[in-house]
Design a protein that fits this description.
196 residues, Maf protein, alpha/beta
């Protein structure tokens, strides 16, 4: 089965390839030679995931999914949320985003936060949404060299390390994206059974 992951982000593709079963051939937007930027004009994480999946589904008519992820910080009323990738500006600079977030939290003792991923799956016949949430907190300063985005300043509740300090396997066992993805895989397995 061919499945398009509607993203230009090689880090996300690599993360998902590591947990993809062998019967699914995962294709990124680069693999299908689609290099346009899809405008994320939604007001919510769910909206943006759906927008991306719909664009690719209409154009290529191959089952596809798109994800959108936001970091929601309680002390900042859920910011950066849907604007997580562009928190410090349109250039999507991870380092600048982390710096701005830490700056906005510098006098806050309440540092609870969660990563939320929503996956929108479309295969021509149906559309499904899958959500994964990972609770945690924002650390005082960055730590670790792995991962990407806010990983160096996000410590999941169940761990004493940031995502950036974990191995890919450790992160994939508890991450928001992996949780949403596992729900989608379970759905695809059930679809596979009912079609065979």
């Amino acid at each position: 089965m061919k499945l398009i992951f509607a993203t230009h982000n090689p880090n996300k593709v690599e993360e998902i390839r590591q947990i993809m079963p062998s019967y699914i051939q995962l294709l990124s937007l680069s693999d299908i030679d689609f290099h346009e930027e899809i405008e994320e004009t939604g007001n919510t994480i769910e909206d943006n995931a759906k927008i991306k999946a719909e664009v690719i589904s209409k154009k290529f008519e191959i089952p596809c999914f798109a994800d959108d992820t936001g970091l929601e910080v309680d002390a900042l009323n859920g910011e950066p949320g849907v604007k997580s990738a562009r928190y410090a500006g349109e250039e999507k600079n991870d380092s600048a985003n982390r710096k701005k977030l830490l700056e906005n939290l510098k006098d806050k003792t309440q540092r609870s936060a969660r990563f939320k991923t929503v996956i929108s799956y479309i295969d021509g016949k149906l559309e499904k949404t899958f959500t994964g949430i990972c609770e945690g907190e924002i650390t005082e300063k960055p730590s670790g060299n792995g991962g990407f985005g806010y990983d160096p300043i996000f410590k999941p509740s169940s761990k004493n390390q940031t995502f950036a300090e974990m191995s890919a396997e450790e992160k994939n066992s508890i991450s928001h994206r992996a949780l949403a993805f596992q729900k989608m895989l379970e759905f695809l397995r059930n679809q596979n059974k009912s079609n065979s």
